[in-house]
Specification:
The structure is a single chain. By secondary structure, this protein is an alpha/beta fold. The chain has seven helices and nine strands. It folds into two domains: about 1-160, Alpha/beta knot, CATH 3.40.1280; about 165-220, tRNA(m1g37)methyltransferase, domain 2 (Trp Operon Repressor, Chain A, Orthogonal Bundle). The protein has helices at about 20-25, 65-75, 95-100, 115-125, 140-150, 160-165, 195-215; strands spanning about 1-5, 30-35, 50, 60, 80-90, 105-110, 125-130, 180-185, 185. It has a five-stranded parallel beta sheet. The structure holds ligand 9WO.
Length: about 220
């Protein structure tokens, strides 16, 4: 899979080269291409934003640099073109999986007070939100989407982790412990040290159900 990110702040994406995502890129599981929208402006001063028609605070990203940029990176429109926006449908794990199984992605990151609506109307397939809050730009949401999707690409996660995850569908995670057995008076539950894997699985499932009932009952409905 190829993910292309369109942004006025390409340096922000250096964060993605760290961790598991950087490793996946090195193993050629997917390609991440970060493209500076400014390279595509036809303005002689490289301007990419302008005052909003109708007045109001701040600046609006111009349609032309975005349009030219999208047409340059996805000329045949074979990718799914997504705009990260609070107006989109909220991202779910189900949606993440369907994106990971689908076409290449182009992620448009807005900044300032927004993007000229014509760039969205002409070039975007879908708007996606990562939650109900407003940020200063779509860059962090784009990174969240890349991280979620990359986990499902071949070789990023161990098959065992994905199996565990699918068994625990719609449940919160059970509590995890590592050494030492006792820390500040709190000890690791006996069952986890028993070596009885049937009992361990049973305990973990009970814990997951009880935690979900207590903290996120909405997930059980
Ligand atoms: C700012 C603003 C200021 C005055 C009047 C109206 C205004 N609208 C906005 C605004 O929506 N700014 C956005 C900032 C423009 C597009 C990029 N921005 C953004 C994306 N903030 N939050 C997101 C986002 C994306 C996906 N999921 C959650 C949040």
């Amino acid at each position: 899979m190829k993910i292309t990110i369109l942004t006025l702040f390409p340096e922000m994406f250096s964060a993605l080269s760290e961790s598991i995502i950087g490793r996946a890129q090195k193993q050629n599981k997917f390609t991440l291409d970060v493209v500076d929208i400014r390279k595509y402006t036809e303005d002689k001063h490289l301007k990419c934003d302008d005052y909003p028609f109708g007045g109001g605070a701040g600046m609006v990203m111009m349609a032309q640099p975005i349009g030219s940029c999208i047409e340059a990176v996805d000329p045949a429109h074979t990718a799914r073109r997504i705009y990260l926006s609070p107006k989109g449908k909220t991202l779910t794990q189900e949606k993440v999986i369907s994106l990971a199984e689908g076409a290449d992605l182009v992620l448009l990151c807005g900044h300032y007070e927004g993007v000229d609506q014509r760039a969205i109307d002409l070039f975007i397939d879908e708007e996606i939100s990562i939650g109900d809050y407003v940020l200063t730009g779509g860059e962090l949401p784009a990174m969240v989407l890349v991280d979620c999707v990359a986990r499902y690409l071949d070789g990023v996660l161990s098959p065992a982790s994905l199996v565990d995850e699918s068994f625990s569908e719609n449940l919160l995670e059970y509590p995890q412990y590592t050494r030492p057995v006792e820390y500040r008076g709190l000890t690791v539950p006996e069952v986890l040290r028993s070596g009885n894997h049937a009992e361990i699985d049973k305990w973990r499932r009970e814990q997951a159900v009880a935690l979900t009932q207590k903290l996120r009952p909405d997930l059980l409905k």
